[in-house]
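Run log, item B.
One chain of 519 residues. Sequence copied directly from the ordering sheet:
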Amino acid sequence: MATHARTTSLPESAMLVLAAFRTRALCATAIANRVERATGGAVRLGPATVDTILTELLRRRFLRAAGAAGRLTCYAITGRGRDALQAAGRAAALVDAPDECGDAPDERNDAPDECGADRPARRRLCYRLRPCAPTDMDGLAAWFSAMAEKGLFFQRDWGLAAGFARGVPRAVRYRLTPMRNRPHETWSFTPDPDAEQLSLFRSCGWQPAGSYGWFHVYRTDDPAARELHTDPAVLALALPPVMRRVAINHLLLPLLLLCFLLLRLLDGDRGCLLAAVEIGPVPLLLVFASLLFAVLRGLLDLCSLRLRQSRLRRGTPDAGRRRGRLAALLGRGVVLYGLTLACVVLRMCLPGRETPLARYADALPFASLRTLMGEDAVCLPPEPYDAGPVGELREWGNLLAPRCIEYAEQADVILPDGAAGNGALYLRYYRLADPWLAERLFGELYRFDRKRYEGFATLEAPPVTGVDEVAAYVRIAGAPALLLRQGSVVLQAELVFSGGGETPPLERWAPLLAQSLAE
């Protein structure tokens, strides 16, 4: 019963191939002719059909390697295979025929490649966008054949496009066949067809033309060459490896990345709102839109392959060209969003325009270092500067935060008690579009610093008025940091003083900074 259950999913042509091994070992190139003669020409197997059947029979251990005949491997039926034939009740009395698996080279094997498959890779190619889904085998084959009639011959895969070499226009048939898994492996493909597969295809007049996506591409100039796939049910057996790859690469990975970004966005401890404020909401929206498009495209490709597989098993013609065009459109949308995202992120990630403080003419919405050090302190530009405040300022804005400022100022400070040292003020100013965003950003900045700095220590908040929230803490080197929120404005400041005196206490400069926000 178990053997019969294993054979019920095999098509009739696969059982005929298995029956061909009942009396002798055969190589791949002899199977099609033997089955054709045994059935009186009623069954003509294409090379891709034979290759798929052999792969499936070897996977089920109905066949085994039984030596070599020249460059080809001969296969023999196993005990499990004989039991499968007997349990399935198939007629296995094929006529005896001479063994055709000799090492005589096929005259077409060494024929020159007139369609450009063997031309040097340095030849300049022209690229055309793909008009169908990457999983539409018939659509891709028809496209390559139509391009050959225009003098463009397929050379290489290029994502949403394909590279073509120019030549003399003529009729060339292209066909695609799914890549096989490596032996004893489930997830890795063979990037190139092996020598035995090439010999099988070339013996029927088909030459390799490269690969596209998860498929090998073959072409022929002979209009009488038999089709690669002659049994739809056998072609359905070759689709599961491609379906697994599509499910992982085109659906599962984008979906996991989308869920990861959503979780990061909902978790305020990781600074996602801060990244959105500093980078801008447009790149984030483009990221989510591109991932959503990728998930939709992967889902559509997978559903299209499953529907195609079910139609092939029933032997009905495939009718998925409309879905293929929609998948191609979604694929182009993913790339369009990806290119736009790359441009925006590149623009955002490039170093911003930093303006020296001495050249900044606009009024600052917060107090400067001179104000915070006190009226009695003397602030001089550090050597070798001789005039104006020293430091840099970077200003930007977006939909979430119309005005953001990153501020850094340094000066040589002489305190009222005569102590001298170097003072520095590091400040970030965010004016957000809504007080709710400011409240969320305030908490996110605090939690982000608490997790990021090992020496983080909370300080008692100084008594300040005119602000909605205040927090004080130490991040590094004992320098106090202050975090303020007033309405839709969030301010993060750190005052550092190094020298002979003590750092001005937080209780003295925090009210000055809060007062500057109120003004």
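Observations after the first pass:
- The first strand starts at residue 26 and ends at 27.
- The radius of gyration is 36 Å.
Flagged for discussion on Thursday.
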